[in-house]
Fold these 3 entries.
Entry 1:
Amino acid sequence: MLSIAYLRSFRLFGFAIFDFTLAYLGVYLLAPLLSKLTGFVGWHPSRLQWLYLTLPLSVLFHLLFHQVTPLTKLALDPHSGYLFKALLLVMLYLGLRK
C-alpha cells in the first residue's frame, strides 16, 4: 500500500510533486463551485483563472495558518527567491484580470 510519505518523496527542485498535483487537480475540479461562490460578489473567474490563483492562494493560506513549508520560506525570504516572487505576482495578475 502506498503511503503519503512515499508519494511525497518524489520531488522537483525540492518541492513535492504530489502536493502540487493534488492542489491543482483539486482547484480544477472545484473551480465551478468556487466561481459560483465568488459570483455573489460579482466576480466570475474562469477555470483557468482559478488555476493561475492556486499557487498564490496556497502561499497566502499557509501564511494565515502559520504552516511553514519550503514554498512559504521561499516567499518570505527577503534575500532570495526573486524569480519565484515575480512568478507569484504574474500568476496573481493573470488570475485576477478580467
Entry 2:
Amino acid sequence: MTDAVQDLGLARRPAPDPAVLAVLAAAVDQAWPRPVAATAETAPSGPAWRFSGRWWARPTAVRRERPWARG
C-alpha cells in the first residue's frame, strides 16, 4: 500500500494530537442526544392527530367531483 500512496502523490497524514482528539470526542459526546426514559405522566395516550373524518379517509369514488350531481 505504501507504493500506491507514493504513486498517487499523496502524503501520509500526521498523527492527530491527543488534545485535539479529546476536544472532538467531548464535542461529539455533548452533541449526541441522550436517551430519556418515559414515565407514566409523559407517555402519550394515543396519537394527537387522527385520520377519521378527513376527506382522504373516504373512498376515491365518493371523493370525486361530480358537477352534474350538484343540486
Entry 3:
Amino acid sequence: MLGNRVVQKRKRKATDGPPDAFGLFCSYHLGVTVDDGYQKPSLDGTARRYGMPPEEIKTLLTEYEIDPDTISKTEFDLEGAQLDIRLAPEGISRTEIAREHFESYRACLGEQ
C-alpha cells in the first residue's frame, strides 16, 4: 500500500498460443494485432505475441516458407499488402484482408 492507495498488480497478458503460418504472416509481415488492430511489424513484437524467442520465430518463418528471403523470390506484392493493412478503414477486418493476401502469397509460392 502506498498511503491509502492499494497497488494493483497488472495481469500479464497471455500469449497468443503456438503460431501457425497464417498467424505468423499476419503478425510478422503485416502487423495485424491480436485484436485486429495494427502495429508496425517486427520480429520482437511477434516473438512477444507468441511467447517465443526471436530465433524460434525465424525458424518457423523458414519452415512455413514465409521468411523474407522466400517471399522476395515470388511475385507477391508484400508492400501493397502491408499498405492495405495499415490503411484499412474502421469497421473492416484486417484479419480478413490479411487472409486474402495470405492466399495470394500461397498461390505465388506455388507458381515458382
